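Hi there, hope your week has been kind to you so far. Thanks so much in advance, here it is:
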Amino acid sequence: MSGTRYTCVAKAVPIPILPVALTLAATACEPAPPRPPPSQTQTQDSAGILIVENARPETGSRLGWLVSQAPAISIGTVAGGEDFQLHQVGDALKLPDGRIVVANGGSHQLLVFDDNGNYLEAWGQRGEGPGDFSTIQGSDGLGRSVFWMERWPGDSLAVCSGSSQAVNNVVSIWDTRGRHGRTLNLTRINRSKCRDVLAGGAILASRRVGSPTALPEKGMNRDQEDFSILAGDGSPLGALGRHPGGETFWYFEDHMGDGTGMGLFDPPFRKTLWWAAWGDFVVLAPTDRYELRAYRHDGSLARIVRRQNDARSPTQADVESYREAYTPKREETIHLLKQYNATVDAFPLPESFPAFTAIEVDALGYLWVREYNPPGDDDRALWTVFDSEGFVQGFVETPPRLVIHQIGEDFILGKVLDELGVEYVQLWGLDRRGARTGRSP
């Protein structure tokens, strides 16, 4: 290991016991001399919009923030009671008192653990009454969970739950003792879905343009989403305009041999849309290009942040790698194999890979944007960190296979799956004291 560069090699393994607190350890190497940040410029256009242009950080460089070598807390188990059988975890949130709340879609509950990872209680249940979670299934159509949480004013939580279809999408407010306060059904108000919670108790919502049941044309399709900001009672505050959603590929054939003749797939190297509450702004960013647009709550565009992106174009070999990775393997799904292969053969080769693959905002206001992993590099987790003004600070590498749900001042909380598909919620330490490091060997 050279300087303070840290390459995480932690591996999630089954833990056949109740959750325990683990010793937190971080690398402690002599820091390299600080290096200047990537070249940056800030201009203002005629409409008063700030435009920040950033070079890509040097390949192999790291910001110097260190992630612990092992998780401090790991929640989950292969064997045990239902309280510890995590399934379809949609989100996890650490509260100021150290408790960890897990949105466990499999049980339609919020599971609460203490600051050592020991189970305390469950909030809510599956049902149709006040505080119940009626339908939690699928994704939101853009690749995100339909069961998630954020802090709400007054030491409370806002919990969004729903399904992949626009039939039931609600925001329920809970206090941090597990008492349900009220529920807001966005589907009934304006057929929208909750996307994020903003400062002051506003809600970021979006609504798919067009009929949600309309059958698309054969080939590549991409929905459009109208984004808006709603008050806590659902009344409109501002419109953020129309933005491209996620790509889908429809394939129709009458001779695939399984009697269906139709398939709906997320295409390889899928372009989609990411968003985040970033201080006083809302970031909306299609993954087609490395450009992050920050909107004020009244809907006006305040800032455009760009970063150089030199990703290569996909090749047919990349498509074949995708095919091999996702081909149905089980005998009972063999009837889908013809359909799957015929669909992959019909995929058009895109002009480029997505520019990035995730966005997170941490507790200190830094914006984290995850690099897209090309085929053969699925375990890498490399993020570009931007400060609150939109200037690049450098790269940070996080544990492989960790899906991040929250980045605190000194921790990262997320979900991992082991080789058996068992889910774990893990808390890792984050040390921000390191200086920017130079190019690694």
Observations:
- The chain has a mean pLDDT of 82.
- Residues 61 and 303 are 27 Å apart (CA to CA).
- Residues 20-431 form a domain with the Neuraminidase fold (CATH 2.120.10.30).
